[in-house]
Each structure stands twice: as C-alpha cells, then as structure tokens.
Amino acid sequence: MQQPEPQSFDRVLSSMCTEPHPAAREAAERFLATNPGDPATYEAVASLEERAIELLATLADHPSPTDAAGYVTSGGTEANVQAVRSARNRHDANDVNVVVPESGHFSFHKAAEMLGVELRTVPVDDDHRTRADAVAAAVDTSTALVVGVAGSTEYGRVDPIPALAEIAHDAGALMHVDAAWGGFVLPFTDGEWSFGDAAVDTLTIDPHKFGQAPVPAGGLLARDAAALDALAVDTPYLETRSQATLTGTRSGAGVAGAVAAMEVLWPDGYRDAVERAGDNAEWLAAALADRGYDVVEPSLPLVAARLPESEFDALREAGWKVSRTANGELRVVCMPHVTRSSLQAFVADLDRIRD
Ligand SMILES: Cc1ncc(COP(=O)(O)O)c(C=O)c1O
Is 139 inside any structural domain? Predict the structure, then answer.
C-alpha cells in the first residue's frame, strides 16, 4: 500500500508553521517514545527540556537564561492559557480580568472561557498596534494580567511592550508577551519585546513556528519560578512531586526537535532566515502595490493586502494556501519555506487571474 504523504510546502503562504530543519527532524524521531511529563523516568529528555528553556530564554534576552523558568508546550495556545492561569492564581481578587488587545490571538478567548476570567479587549491604533492609553483605561485592581503581542498573527505588529508592562505593574497586574510567532524573528530587529527590553513576567515563544522545529513545540517562559509554582499540582503516582504543565504526557519529539533546531540555527541560521523572509515580504508588498492593491506595509515578514474576493478565491482554486485577516485582506506569512521563486509564481498566477 502506498504511504500517505503530507502536503508539500510549495504553495503554503498562510501558515505560521514551516518545514523543520533536517537536524530537528532527526532528533524528533530519536525521541518519539519519550515523555518529558514524567521527568524522573525519562531523564534524557528532561535534561533536554532544561536546555530548551535556556536557549529560548537566551533568544528572549532573559538577564540570566539558566534562571528562567518555563517548559515546552504543545503550542502557543497552551502557553497563553497557562500564562493567564498563572496570573489568575497569583492574584488576590476573586473575580479577575485580563486585558488583551483586539489583535490578540483567539487562544486568549479560550483561556478566559476555561478559567472563568473576564476578558477586556482593547482597541488597536491605525497601524494595528495596541493603544497604551486604552490599556491604561481598561486596567483596575482586579486586573491579573496585561497581554501585549510581539508579532501579531494578522499583521506582524509589535505592541508598545515597555509601556504596557509599566501600566500592568502600576495596576498590580503581571505582564505577558505573546511572541509565539515573533520570538524567533524579533531578536534580529530593533523591536522592544523581550525580558531585556521591559518588565515582562511571562512570554510565549514557539519553536514550531519560525524556529523551524517539528510540531508540537511551543514555549512558555517566565522571568522566575513563581509563575510556574502557581501552576503546580501534586502528582502522587510520579516520582516527581508536582507538575506545572497543562497536559500530562507530552511530546519528547517536540522537545528534542526544538533543541536540535535551536542548537543548529541560533543565531546565524535564524538571522539569515529572518533577512531572507524580510526581503521576500518587501518584494511581495512592492509587487502588490505596483499592481494597485492597498498593502499594509510589512514590519515583520508578513504581508496583508486588499484583494477582490473573486481573485482571492481564484488563487485558492489555483492551489495557493492563502488566508484572510478578519478585515478580509489577503495575508501571506513569509516563513522560511516561502522562497522568492514561489512568490514570483504566486504573483504570475495573480496576473493571469487579473487578465
Ligand atoms: C501570536 C500567536 N499566538 C498564539 C498562537 C497559537 O499558537 P498555536 O497554534 O501553536 O497554539 C498563534 C498562532 O498562530 C499566534 O500567531
């Protein structure tokens, strides 16, 4: 029988996942049957996970990466849910709220529903960045967490993280940065987003996005252990006494793949990928603008542009995996697998469709 094959990445322009680095793929396969959720049994993968956190904390400019707390999650959703849960557990009030920009990922809606916290959504400015004044107006003494996005899902925008962190702490709340996608791009920009740039308490950063690690490998980081302590439950049948993760059994393949990718690519390989992706985004934005489309100027390697519905549909029919923002714009994520020649083929198809 013929083995089923996954789709090729040739025409995938909508995804924040990408082809894993070959070293990461190999490492993941070696660790397929390991469970970092039981570190007293699976010691090798448990120590790899410590290395993963140290490497992620280095990317996120933690002042002392070996002291950072965190774990490899199933993805950005779990990391965001756990950040909300930790902040809720650490806050004194019974009915807490979380302030999230409207550009925040929908995982915060899941978190709010599951955890019984109020979600206060605040507007963004004309450039799709969270308005600090709106956050200041939304926080109160029941605010457990303020969320800022560093590399937004739809437009790749970075919120004013230092200002948001100040507002959060003045209100007695914690500060969480969602850099699920942006975390492997922003170290090579002058964006302010990291533990080194601002008083950030927790941060989401996913190796299985721009980090070129196999799925599933997300990351939750915390400045110090208190954030994870607030998540710990007793684990009577395991040799370790408590567990702070959301899921029990977890993917050792994800942990090993993430470490292998970061060991090989940090920093030069990631820098090259970010530069290539940035050039590609600029090229595509210019090509679309030349054809008269309204383009949202890319800041990180993500391009949004307004296309007629019929052209969008025709591109999908031609096999291009493209998606739309909530405002209806075409959205192209220039991931490492997206080459200049695939973008040239995409624009050539668009020209054919327009004729
Ligand atoms: C900014 C941001 N946060 C969180 C997520 C959720 O990540 P995951 O799909 O790995 O759960 C995404 C997904 O694209 C994202 O862009």
Answer: yes
Q: Is 181 in the pocket of ligand 1 (CB under 6 A)?
A: yes
Q: Residues 233, 208: contact at Cβ < 8 Å?
A: no
Specify the 3-state DSSP secondary structure of 336: coil
CATH number at 138 reads 3.40.640.10
Residue at 37 is within a domain: yes
Place of tokens 């709010």: 112
Is residue 5 classed exposed, middle or buried when 0-12, 13-18 and 19+ CB atoms within 10 A define those classes? exposed
Residues 150 and 253 in one domain: yes
Cβ–ligand 1 contact at 153 (below 6 Å): yes
The predicted model scores a pTM of: 0.98
Residues 70, 31 within the same domain: yes
285 and 219 share a domain?
no
* Structural domain span for residue 296: 268-354
Atom of ligand 1 nearest to the CA of 78: 11
Cβ distance 260 to 23 under 8 Å?
A: yes
Residue 134 placed within a domain: yes
Give me the tens of pLDDT residue by residue for the chain, a chain 355 residues long.
789 999 899 999 999 999 999 999 999 999 999 999 999 999 999 999 999 999 999 999 999 999 999 999 999 999 999 999 999 999 999 899 999 999 999 999 999 999 999 999 999 999 999 999 999 999 999 999 999 999 999 999 999 999 999 999 999 999 999 999 999 999 999 999 999 999 999 999 999 999 999 999 999 999 999 999 999 999 988 888 899 999 999 999 999 999 999 999 999 999 999 999 999 999 999 999 999 999 999 999 999 999 999 999 999 999 999 999 999 999 999 999 999 999 999 999 999 999 8
